[in-house]
């Protein structure tokens, strides 16, 4: 397997500058707030989970950071600057359901699209870009499927393709909307390993996540959201029963299912994915 050197180059942005700063962000759909007065600071070089019940505004927060939905109020800074100044340093992995997987394109074509932001409007992908895309596919175990049409992929293979495309962007900050949704245990482990490697080379990954039982094992930092921000901080200090109760309200079954995960996290005995 070839080595895509850019992916292993540590970043030089001062660590004191947050990866993301959101100030007083409010987003409303049809005059109904889906995010209300959210103010949060996310540090660099972390794996960050955004958790909360359905309808809490988790995906909307990602889209607001990316400028994909208008904010009624507030502002966002990425690596200390407005998004428009650092857009090429930000990668996005949307939900799989948002893509037309019947579009006639190969896996390699889709991953190579991750290079487009670096090429501009005039240049076409060259051999070096294809080689970089193939390397990214190898990192997610998909190199043997490079020529396959995306319509022929399983759900897990689709998610790996999305992740490879994000890697091809060689960004500093990645926003991922449910990267583990609907994948098998092998794919989940592959994704976790890739995300950890990204963090260890100076990237920041912020992911909407639903499986509370894996939060202590997978993530360093957490945001608990239910239209308003309930809490944010390191997992060890923030992923607590009280904060979960404040986030999920009366959904005690959900909280009870995570009580053991919290206990194991505090005891240092984390569960693992088979």
Which features would summarize this protein structure in a list?
274 residues, alpha/beta, three-stranded antiparallel sheet, 9 strands
Helix and strand topology:
Layout: E1 20-29, E2 32-42, E3 47-51, H1 58-65, E4 73-78, H2 83-86, E5 90-93, H3 107-112, H4 116-119, H5 127-139, H6 155-169, E6 173-177, H7 185-200, E7 204-208, H8 215-218, E8 221-226, E9 228-234, H9 235-238, H10 241-248, H11 252-267
Parallel strand pairs: 3-7, 3-8, 5-6, 6-7
Antiparallel strand pairs: 1-2, 1-4, 8-9
Helix pairs in contact: 5-6, 10-11
Report on this model:
α7 (185-200) links the parallel β6 and β7. The model is unreliable at 1-10 and 270-274 (pLDDT under 50). With 274 residues, the protein is α/β, with parallel strands linked by helices. α10 (241-248) packs antiparallel against α11. The strands form two sheets. A six-stranded mixed sheet has the order 5-6-7-3-8-9, sandwiched between helices. The chain contains eleven helices and nine strands. The longest helix has 16 residues, at 185-200.
Task: Summarize the entry for a quick read.
With 274 residues, the chain is of the alpha/beta class. It has helices spanning 58-65, 83-86, 107-112, 116-119, 127-139, 155-169, 185-200, 215-218, 235-238, 241-248, 252-267; strands at 20-29, 32-42, 47-51, 73-78, 90-93, 173-177, 204-208, 221-226, 228-234. Strand 6 (173-177), helix 7 (185-200) and strand 7 form a beta-alpha-beta unit.
């Amino acid at each position: 397997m070839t080595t895509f050197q850019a992916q292993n180059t540590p970043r030089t942005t001062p660590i004191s500058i947050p990866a993301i700063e959101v100030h007083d962000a409010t987003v409303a759909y049809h005059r109904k707030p889906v995010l209300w007065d959210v103010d949060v600071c996310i540090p660099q070089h972390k794996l960050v989970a955004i958790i909360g019940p359905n309808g809490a505004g988790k995906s909307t927060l990602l889209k607001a950071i990316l400028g994909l939905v208008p904010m009624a109020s507030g502002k966002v800074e990425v690596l200390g600057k407005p998004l428009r100044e650092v857009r090429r340093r930000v990668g996005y992995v949307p939900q799989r359901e948002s893509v037309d997987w019947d579009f006639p394109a190969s896996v390699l074509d889709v991953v190579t699209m991750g290079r487009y932001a670096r090429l501009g409007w005039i240049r076409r992908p060259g051999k070096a870009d294809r080689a970089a895309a193939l390397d990214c596919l190898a990192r997610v175990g998909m190199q043997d499927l490079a020529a396959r049409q995306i319509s022929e992929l399983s759900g897990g293979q689709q998610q790996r393709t999305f992740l490879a495309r994000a890697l091809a962007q060689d960004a500093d900050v990645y926003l991922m909307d449910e990267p583990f949704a609907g994948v098998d245990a092998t794919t989940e482990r592959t994704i976790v390993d890739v995300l950890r490697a990204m963090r260890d080379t100076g990237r920041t990954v912020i992911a909407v996540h639903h499986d509370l039982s894996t939060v202590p094992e997978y993530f360093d930092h957490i945001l608990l959201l239910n239209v308003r921000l309930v809490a944010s901080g390191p997992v060890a200090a923030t992923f607590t029963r009280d904060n979960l109760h404040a986030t999920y309200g009366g959904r005690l079954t959900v909280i009870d299912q995570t009580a053991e995960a919290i206990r194991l996290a505090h005891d240092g005995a984390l569960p693992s994915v088979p």
